[in-house]
């Protein structure tokens, strides 16, 4: 059985995500977050280590989405 943990995001971001995923195959905010994190991890594993520039690009994207300040 898969164990889970909780990740906190601001409520306003969660509301924006819920609006964004309407009409998509994502059933919840958690589904989208799992997809995004899995994509980042897979990308990292395929390339080996992330370069500083790649890390900054990902951080910028997460910041734009409201996950980072």
TrEMBL record:
<protein>
    <submittedName>
        <fullName>Putative nickel-responsive regulator</fullName>
    </submittedName>
</protein>
<dbReference type="GO" id="GO:0006355">
    <property type="term" value="P:regulation of DNA-templated transcription"/>
</dbReference>
<dbReference type="InterPro" id="IPR013321">
    <property type="entry name" value="Arc_rbn_hlx_hlx"/>
</dbReference>
<dbReference type="InterPro" id="IPR010985">
    <property type="entry name" value="Ribbon_hlx_hlx"/>
</dbReference>
């Amino acid at each position: 059985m898969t164990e889970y943990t909780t990740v906190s995001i601001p409520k306003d971001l969660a509301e924006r995500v819920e609006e964004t995923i309407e009409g998509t195959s994502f059933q919840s905010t958690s589904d989208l977050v799992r997809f995004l994190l899995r994509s980042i991890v897979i990308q990292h594993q395929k390339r080996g280590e992330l370069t500083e520039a790649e890390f900054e690009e990902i951080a910028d994207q997460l910041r734009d989405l409201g996950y980072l300040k």
